[in-house]
Amino acid sequence: MSEHSGAATRTLVTIICEAVLESRLLKDLDALGAPGWTISEARGSGSRGVRASDWDNNSNIRVEVVCGRPVAEKIMQYMQVHYYADFAMICFLSDVEVLRLHKF
Amino acid sequence: MSEHSGAATRTLVTIICEAVLESRLLKDLDALGAPGWTISEARGSGSRGVRASDWDNNSNIRVEVVCGRPVAEKIMQYMQVHYYADFAMICFLSDVEVLRLHKF
Amino acid sequence: MSEHSGAATRTLVTIICEAVLESRLLKDLDALGAPGWTISEARGSGSRGVRASDWDNNSNIRVEVVCGRPVAEKIMQYMQVHYYADFAMICFLSDVEVLRLHKF
Q1: How far is residue C1 from each of residues A1, B9, B19, B64, B103, measured CA to CA in Å?
Q2: Whole-angstrom distance, CA of residue B15 vs CA of residue B37
Q3: ipTM
Q4: Predicted TM-score (pTM) of this structure
Q5: Of B40, B94, B96, Cβ closest to residue A40
């Protein structure tokens, strides 16, 4: 990613999961150091997780967090350990560029 | 993108198009090997595609697929060949990082 | 990002902000040269911006623009100068890959 004056790299964490997990997930994110989050409603279908066949047509949420890389990796590891075995969830990281004055 | 223990790179395919295409698109994605998808509602406006002026204020969907690069490229090529001429659609790819135990 | 035949890199601008800013923001994007945009509804919470505590549980929007890097940087700079001091807003850039025939 090219750098321009004032630009800094942060990590975007995206979590897509069953809507029923929302309040539990937000408590986790807060404890893990997420500086904030954005939630949008979604629908999904996929061969992801043990409850994959139950996921079809379920109400899902898409949670996004912009943070430093260490917190992002901690969140992704936590999600895997605590949710992947029992819930349909997908979590992925990507690099994004913000302006330095924009604090995270 | 820095690698940490257990991390792997996948490709995120994002398709934004008219909501009326949903069922047709999901059949395509299944046939092209997408392991799953997430759909959210959206609104759009843009000079994209031949029906651009009709796209304003239309109901749109945002479809996301996380998969390996070959499937992602196949999806993007297919969208271009089958939809770009006749529908307002935007499709783009980006690299994302997942944990290895998370199968796609 | 690996290049395949016909692929080109563009920049995805993501803006998340209070829904009340929508019409003003779209006028800005048009003036700044954005070729189009996609809007989806969202909810957010975070320590971002001076009105952070007011942002919780507010109605937010997520605006996405795919464009060339110069326009993307102009948009991000403009958002910072005109909105960051007075509104809860987050803006970030990421690289995405499109097919060349797909004009932006």
Answers
A1: 10, 11, 30, 19, 22
A2: 11
A3: 0.83
A4: 0.86
A5: B40
